[in-house]
Write a structure and sequence with these properties.
142 residues, UspA, 7 strands, five-stranded parallel β-sheet, alpha/beta, 30% strand, Rossmann-like_a/b/a_fold
Length: 142
């Protein structure tokens, strides 16, 4: 399988472990990897002193998370990254559809106990994605 594998990250240890699984899977099947971090709002703050001003937004923070993970995973495969607007599952699915990805990789965080009842990103992606979904075991992370 060639093509693109999409993985979602949020800066947590479980997301990092899922991203490492995605990288290994992409390398094994000859695919490239696209790292996505979701943001759900357009909150923007302006900081500054005098004529110097900095604009910080949720999108910037999400892109920074995705870029940091992508840089850590780069090596023998092509790795790209982006920030995507929406709730995590929704953003991953939309990004995978936009890229015509072959697979989405997510961690299995919140798939046990009360999280299972309340819902998880993995559960939502597995039920709604239009491509294959791989759920990586991330319980021993964090």
């Amino acid at each position: 399988m060639s093509g693109i594998i999409v993985v979602g990250v949020d800066g947590s240890g479980t997301a990092k472990k899922a991203a490492e699984s995605a990288r290994d899977l992409a390398a094994a099947v000859g695919a490239s990897l696209h790292v996505v971090s979701a943001f759900d709002s357009d909150r923007t703050e302006i900081f500054g002193s005098g004529s110097d001003q900095w604009i910080v937004s949720d999108a910037d923070g999400a892109e920074h998370v995705a870029k940091t993970v992508a840089e850590a995973l780069a090596g023998s495969i092509k790795v790209t990254y982006s920030a995507a607007r929406g709730k995590p599952a929704e953003a991953l699915i939309k990004e995978a559809e936009r890229l015509d990805a072959k697979m989405i990789v997510v961690g299995n965080r919140r798939m046990r106990g009360i999280g299972r009842v309340l819902g998880s990103v993995a559960n939502s992606v597995a039920h709604n994605a239009t491509c294959d979904v791989y759920i990586a075991n991330t319980y021993d992370a964090d």
